[in-house]
């Protein structure tokens, strides 16, 4: 892996002891950065591509794409009385597992503590949706749906985005389609809400790998990797119609003007308290190293894009794969997958709004390799303002980490 090559060539990383109480690079990091768990030990999971989720007791849940028996795991982290965190594997995917393999999408929690997630591959080669329920003897996985159950995988294939619940208990997800799964006495029923064009130059967008978000009216919002009017991806909205169908509308096509962002990150969009949408692009901007953008609804119903920050190579980080999260004060938090320290392992950042309408970009932490490398997923905020995140690689075993940081 790339990190191992950096270590082998003598990159100037911080001198770290045991990872359990990491205190890394005082001049580079926030004082309360902590690694909760380093993955990649023998039999443990490895490679975290998605966000974690917290329950009411601040236990942390997530999944790894690899590791365990080799095909991914679902895990729980629990804080111990001494302040350390203990990992428990809730499920390990196996070769030819009928419940799926390689869970690229993260997990979500319902109000009773059950977990729901997607696996990108399954017995029909199209992936699955599953539920994990806690019980006296452990956690039980139930298969809710296998994709490619319809000809030509027209029900969706290879989902990589985490699911989202509506107020009625329906699940929504995206891949080459946007789908809905509804609970039924005889099992869960899938409905395809929208099919994206399979060609990269489709003006409605092509291939959605970012998690969807819902507004108060039940409209869905998301991004596509490609397509749009300029073939660089798009932000879209899906609106439910009275006849039960859904209507798609492209809110913004990336590459619309010089120095616009292109190729949106795979993190979910975020709403602020006034209904503005925020997100990132992996490339484009003034330096072609990615952007943070805002979309604002105009009186005529159109949406106007504003570039809040253009990334550039260097210690401030660049190439964000994750979106942003917003706190009560309107600050944005996110990660950039590259840049930062000399290992080019990425950063955690904050964007603070100023009274004059400008924004101030601040690096909260530069990842150094042994404390994580290459973050790709959205951060998560708890009720105290602490941030939780993941990295794909890094840590003592190069299997990725879960971290906590207090801005």
Can you put this structure into words, describing what you see?
The protein has one helix and 31 strands. The protein starts with a helix and ends with a strand. A hairpin with a 2-residue loop joins strand 13 and strand 14. Helix content is 2%, strand content 40%. The model is unreliable at 1-31 (pLDDT under 50). The strands form eight sheets. Strands 20, 21, 22, 23 and 24 form a five-stranded antiparallel sheet that branches. A four-stranded antiparallel sheet has the order 1-31-30-29, with no helix packed on it. A four-stranded antiparallel sheet has the order 3-4-6-7, with no helix packed on it. With 407 residues, it is mainly β. It has a domain at 1-17 and 30-49 and 266-407.
List the helices and strands and how they pair.
Blueprint: H1 2-8, E1 34-38, E2 45-46, E3 53-54, E4 60-64, E5 66-67, E6 73-79, E7 85-92, E8 108-109, E9 115-119, E10 128-135, E11 138-146, E12 164-165, E13 171-174, E14 177-184, E15 187-195, E16 213-214, E17 220-224, E18 234-240, E19 246-253, E20 261-264, E21 270-271, E22 277-284, E23 291-297, E24 303-310, E25 324-326, E26 332-336, E27 347-353, E28 359-366, E29 380-381, E30 387-390, E31 401-405
Antiparallel strand pairs: 1-31, 2-5, 3-4, 4-6, 6-7, 8-9, 9-10, 10-11, 12-13, 13-14, 14-15, 16-17, 17-18, 18-19, 20-22, 21-22, 22-23, 23-24, 25-26, 26-27, 27-28, 29-30, 30-31
């Amino acid at each position: 892996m790339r990190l191992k090559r950096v270590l082998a060539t003598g990159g100037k990383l911080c001198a770290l002891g045991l990872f359990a109480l990491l205190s890394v690079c005082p001049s580079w990091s926030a004082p309360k950065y902590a690694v909760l768990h380093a993955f990649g030990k023998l039999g443990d999971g490895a490679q975290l591509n998605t966000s974690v989720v917290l329950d009411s007791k601040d236990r942390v849940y997530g999944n790894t794409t690899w590791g365990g028996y080799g095909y991914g795991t679902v895990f729980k982290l629990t804080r111990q009385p001494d302040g350390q965190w203990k990992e428990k594997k809730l499920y390990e995917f196996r070769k030819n597992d009928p419940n799926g393999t390689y869970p690229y999408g993260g997990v979500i929690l319902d109000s009773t503590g059950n977990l729901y997630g997607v696996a990108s591959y399954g017995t029909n080669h199209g992936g699955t949706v599953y539920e994990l329920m806690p019980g006296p003897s452990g956690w039980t996985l139930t298969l809710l749906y296998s994709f490619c159950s319809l000809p030509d995988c027209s029900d969706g294939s290879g989902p990589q985005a985490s699911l989202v619940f509506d107020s009625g208990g329906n699940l929504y997800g995206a891949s080459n389609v946007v789908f809905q799964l509804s609970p039924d006495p005889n099992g869960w029923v899938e409905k395809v809400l929208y099919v994206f064009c399979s060609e990269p130059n489709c003006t409605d967008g092509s291939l959605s790998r970012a998690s969807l978000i819902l507004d108060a009216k039940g409209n869905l919002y998301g991004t596509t990797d490609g397509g749009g009017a300029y073939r660089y991806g798009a932000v879209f909205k899906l609106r439910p119609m009275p006849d039960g169908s859904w209507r798609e509308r492209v809110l913004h096509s990336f590459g619309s003007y010089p120095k616009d962002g292109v190729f949106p990150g795979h993190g979910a969009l975020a709403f602020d308290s006034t209904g503005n949408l925020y997100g990132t692009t992996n490339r484009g901007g003034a330096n072609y190293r990615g952007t943070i953008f805002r979309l604002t609804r105009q009186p005529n119903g159109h949406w106007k894009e504003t570039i809040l920050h253009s990334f550039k190579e260097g210690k401030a980080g660049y190439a964000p794969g994750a979106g942003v999260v917003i706190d009560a004060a309107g600050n944005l938090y996110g990660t950039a997958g590259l840049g930062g320290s000399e290992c080019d392992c990425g950063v955690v950042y904050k964007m603070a709004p100023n009274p004059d309408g400008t924004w101030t970009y601040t690096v909260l932490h530069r990842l150094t390799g042994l404390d994580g490398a290459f973050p790709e997923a959205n951060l998560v905020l708890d009720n105290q303002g602490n941030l939780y995140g993941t990295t794909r690689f890094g840590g003592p075993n190069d299997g990725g980490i879960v971290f906590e940081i207090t801005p």
